[in-house]
Amino acid sequence: MTNQINLTHCVEPLTAKEKERLRWKQLGEKYRNTRLALGITLTELAKKTGCSDKTLSKLEFGRKLLWRSVMEKCYVNSLKLIMAERQAILDQNL
Question: Is 27 strand, coil or helix?
């Protein structure tokens, strides 16, 4: 006979607030992974968004919550702009 403990009854379900925080953390991770995959630094992104790199870092790690539309503006639009600028530089040099 093994001494295993069944923890399924000990785990409480997440509250609505905890679920929301988890969703924001996952969204932040997605944006961070995309930024890193594109080789864009927080400093570079901060210059384009007008947000501080400290704020962006907090967003990426789910420690600061913003409206989703603001977060999308900070990341999606700025990432697209940076990539378009890089492509324009490449096109000029070819």
Answer: helix
How many residues are present in the chain?
Answer: 94
Stated pTM of the model: 0.63
Does residue 68 sit in helix, strand or coil?
A: helix
Do 56 and 74 meet the contact criterion of CB atoms below 8 Å apart?
A: yes
Does some domain include residue 10?
no
Contact 62, 25 (CB under 8 A): yes
> Is residue 11 one of the residues assigned to a domain?
no
* Helix, strand, coil shares, percent, the chain, to 5: 70, 0, 30
Cα separation of 41 and 39, whole Å?
7
What is the span of the domain harbouring residue 80? Answer: 16-93
pLDDT digits (tens, 9 = 90+) for 21-53: 888 888 888 888 888 988 889 998 888 878 888
Distance between CA 27 and CA 83 in Å, rounded?
Answer: 20
